[in-house]
Amino acid sequence: MSRTLAIHGMSAEAPRLPERRGFLASSTLALAALALGCTRRSEAAIAAADAGTRPATVSIVEFSNAGKRLQAVRVPRVVKTDAAWRRQLSPLAYGVTRKAGTERAFTGPLLTEHRKGVFRCICCDTALYDSATKFESGTGWPSFWRPIARENVVEERDRSFGMLRTAISCARCDAHLGHVFDDGPKPTGLRYCMNSAALRFAAA
């Protein structure tokens, strides 16, 4: 996750500065407003500008709360203004999902969630992990050995703090979820180390 404690092979995250993309986008919008005499823009216009050249739709797989695969669909990408995300999310969820921050280890309510069900994105409700793949990693964050569908998550290189890691985000709304490491159990050998604040548990 954001900051790794390499001493004992466990990862611990710390809040990160706003993403460069978000900073540049906000700076550009601010300059544009000044050039237009500080003309106010609608939130829809700001969100559209932030979307940039990314595809307007994404392909994901839908699942029931019992983890049953329903269908592959192409859906609109969820893009909102920073203000809209702040209104929708708790301060912690906003800091984690929209600013790539973290919750403190062993504090997330989903760490001890063991019922049958699906863990969904707190921002857009996309299915992300099946409870059948959850395991106790001892790191202090909910851990899974694979996502519920490859299509539903995005992997990106994260070079923050002088390290090279793989960050995981929601494919539909770009919410930061956590990181994936190669010290997980069989059959994948992977550990998807997620923030409770980025997830919503839907019981079967």
Automatic annotation (TrEMBL):
Listed EC numbers: 1.8.4.12
Q: Which PROSITE patterns match?
A: MSRB, TAT
Its Gene Ontology molecular function terms? peptide-methionine (R)-S-oxide reductase activity
Q: Where do the coiled-coil regions begin and end?
A: none
- Broadest EC class assigned to this enzyme: oxidoreductase
Q: Which UniProt keywords apply?
A: Oxidoreductase
Please state every residue range assigned to the domain named MsrB.
82-204
- Return any one Pfam family short name: SelR
* InterPro entries, A to Z: Met_Sox_Rdtase_MsrB (IPR028427), Met_Sox_Rdtase_MsrB_dom (IPR002579), Mss4-like_sf (IPR011057), TAT_signal (IPR006311)
Signal peptide range equals none
Protein name, as recorded: peptide-methionine (R)-S-oxide reductase
The organism encoding this protein is Cognatiluteimonas sedimenti
Upper lineage is: Bacteria, Pseudomonadati, Pseudomonadota, Gammaproteobacteria, Lysobacterales
